[in-house]
Amino acid sequence: MTLAKATTRLLLTSLISAAGLASQASADRLVSIDGSLTEIIYALGAEADLVGVDTTSIYPEAATNLPDVGYMRALSAEGILSLAPDRVITTADAGPADALSQLQAAGIKIDILDNTPSLAGLISKIQSTAAVLGRREAGDDLAAQVEDEVEQAQRAIAEQLGSLNVMFVMDGGSRGFQVAGRDTLADGVLNVAGFTNVFEAIQGYKPLTPEAAINANPDVILMFHSQKNLEELATNPALSLTRAVQNGRLYNVDDLDLLSFGPRLGTALQGLLERMTDHT
Amino acid sequence: MTTRLFTTLIGLLLTLALMTALAFGPVPVSLRELGIWSLHWSPMTLPELPRHIDIVLGDIRLPRVLMGLMIGASLAMAGAAIQGLFRNPLADPGLIGVSSGAALAALAVIVLGNTVLAGFMATFGFLALPFAAFLGALLVTWVIYSIARMTPGGSQVTTLILAGVAITAFSGAVSGLLTYLADDAELRSFTFWSMGSLASVTWRDLAIAAPWMGVSLIGFPLMAGALNVMLMGESVADHLGIDPNRIRRRVFVLTALAVGAGVSVAGMIGFVGLVVPHLVRLALGPDHRALIPLSGLVGAALLVWADILARLLVAPAELPIGIITALLGGPFFLYLLMRQTTEGIQHD
After folding, report:
1. What ipTM does this complex have?
2. How many helices and strands (H and E) does chain B possess?
């Protein structure tokens, strides 16, 4: 009897202290500097802690109503300090380094999370964000859910499309087409989808020449940032002679948010699958 | 306007700018806190300031105000000296290639930092970009000057200007090549750099740049007498025992140091070197003994005011300061030109 009572009391005390800890951890005023982190924070239900975001935080729409601290590579320490945050959460792209060290000197905790564009990278990004917010459990749930969705999409893609040779092209407007090589978010998406990036040999985005495109001869071309419609794009000499365009497998993927590498990755991949199976 | 009245006015404007720049920013600081902070070196016992206020005033605002003062003053003085040297009110420090050299080097570091220049990046770390910009500024200026020196006899001014135009076009083309290779993030970084910013100036930056700029801040006023003589033409200068080539060389070195150091810390800040000396010349006439030091004061005041706007207009983000100097400078310059023209007609 007494033992049961003691156990109950112990349980209750630990529950209360756990709740206390949780509420203390979530009392941090938070500035998120990376669109995917902002998305994760919303998905974890921690948006009440957010007091500021950067210009890349455009989803969900509510995030755009928060104070905007500017472009993530050109941050200003005083601007961020004016939001009186306890913590800044960001990825390795943020800078300049001096602004971050000034924030640190002012006693603000700075978490720089890994942003590797892969499924494992996304899962660890979700878990680290959750750990920073003191919401590990919600983080594990979200990570499991995202992993599940992505794997489901991967299986569906493998079944219905198989391994395809794909070229991911950004339309730079007057600068011409830029093709995505390795170490880009676009390359990460292709790998997660189980496709082969035909321009894996180059690093970053590089101008696409008609001859390089014909030589690579992709099965599928994915376009983003393009102002032109697909018919107009298909006549472009850099694309028109590829197997992809001749088989009508040129797709505009702007609306799919493939490159955000946040919790909606599975949905984005499903969208890509639907886009690519619509015509065939 | 008399020189004394003008000096008093600018002095007031500059003092006001300094106080405003310390007192106002995105983080609210009360006058009481500012007072406590500004007395904290004194032996008085004062209440403790919150840590973030101390950091904002001492480590963010103060170094950027001091840097703004020095950059504004040295850009404007360099502009005054270059305009005097070329006897052309449209000349600015960019004419001798210093800005294009700095821009080219900065772009090279931003675009090639992970590949070709990885060794350079590893050696200089976070100082790689400012150091490269400084080197680029000096190197291009030196090349232009060396070409001009090869001209046999006579005046080198035409060769200087033409070499400057050619080298600027060439480094523009190489910049274009790098831009073509750059990805979106690199392009954006360069765009921000080329519009200038004092947002992340630290004491370390100040310590690195201040000695070079200090040399030119002292050197330019000392050149005033010689530049006055140069205004009368090179042969007159020659007869008065002043070697025009030596004067040119000194102005070159001082300009390269001033602009190179400024650009390396704060990126490209346009229009100060062009507009400020012009304004002072309109108010006070072409005597370099007043023109150079007062251009320095006006340039300092202009840049500190522009920096205040840069950090307040879109807070908590920041505008690049080069946008503000050009937005203020462009229309003002046009206004001065138009006033000059209409007055000229009235006099006729």
Report:
1. 0.74
2. 16, 0
